[in-house]
Amino acid sequence: MAEEVLSQHEIDALLSAISSGEMDADELKQDDKAKKVKTYDFKRALRFSKDQIRSITRVHENFARLLTTFYSARLRTFVQISVASVDQVPYEEFIRSIPTMTILNTYSLSPLEGKILMEYDPNIAFAMLDRTLGGRGSSVNKINNLTEIETILMTQLFESGMENLKAAWQSIEEVEPVLEEFEVNPQFLQMVSPNETVVVVTLNSTIGETSGMINICIPHVVLEPIISKLSIHYWMQAPVDKQGNETEWRDLSASIQKASIDLKAILGETMIQVEELMKLQEGDVLMLNQPIDRPMDVKVDNQVKFKAQPGKQKNRMAIQIMEEIETGGEEND
After folding, report:
1. Per the database record, which ranges form the Flagellar motor switch protein FliN-like C-terminal domain (predicted)?
2. Peptide bond preceding 111: is omega within 30 degrees of 0, i.e. cis?
3. pTM of the prediction?
4. Which of 186, 222, 218 has its CA nearest to residue 202?
5. Which of 203-207, 235-239, 241-245, 263-267 has the highest mean pLDDT?
6. How far apart, in whole angstroms, are the C-alpha atoms of residue 168 and residue 165?
7. Cα–Cα distance measured from residue 64 to residue 170, given in angstroms and rounded to the nearest whole number
8. Distance between CA 206 and CA 275 in Å, rounded?
9. 44-236 placed in CATH 3.40.1550.10
């Protein structure tokens, strides 16, 4: 338990009270030995440690940055999204805190159980919709009479942005966000019991000249299977299973071997003027800087890696590797 630090003024007042007899030193000792009782509200049970809350905050700070970039390009206007707060509260308290009519989306995060809820300030949602339809990003709150077309366009906007949530959570768990439900009245949503602890991530959002909040509600049941991965010790612990470590390296090696690279066999190069290029006709001959009896350069990602000679293989043009350049080579001018 952290000790309380007294200011110099409080120390002087305490010494003065003891010196004058107003306070007995023995009584102070007895008070220190007495058990201190702290009231605990079972309706507000704290099921996440500060360390776990910090991990969730880091994940959603990354999500906010990705979402800012995504919607800036999608809406072609100024977008700024950042994490304002991360709290754990009962689900009932969260539902009471949001407006009676608002934009609500529920998502499943397979393979995790349960669903998460994202609540968009209607001003933000309508500003995004207005930009999508070619407007200036004005916000007209008419949530009570959304048309079917507006509902579909909003759903597509929110759904497309969830690829960024998948990317943000990738360091902890591979998840597949899928939009399950679009709602405007929070009273019709009962994802978990009223007393269930949920993590509420609040994002400050600005779309053009319109500002508002985006709230992400994550029930404890969703995070329970990966709760151990939210601890800093999970990232800092040393590998103990050598066999498991070797398997991980094999998987990484296999993934690297499947990566595509750019390979070029340079038959030769030359330089001509634009005027000459414009006058080129069928049958004209260009002289290259590559002697016919000299091996060709083979470049891997623009670095000379091999020497080769041209040929044919089953009626297709081919090259035969003659030499490997260990340290790469100079690019031809």
Report:
1. 256-325
2. yes
3. 0.58
4. 218
5. 203-207
6. 5
7. 14
8. 53
9. yes
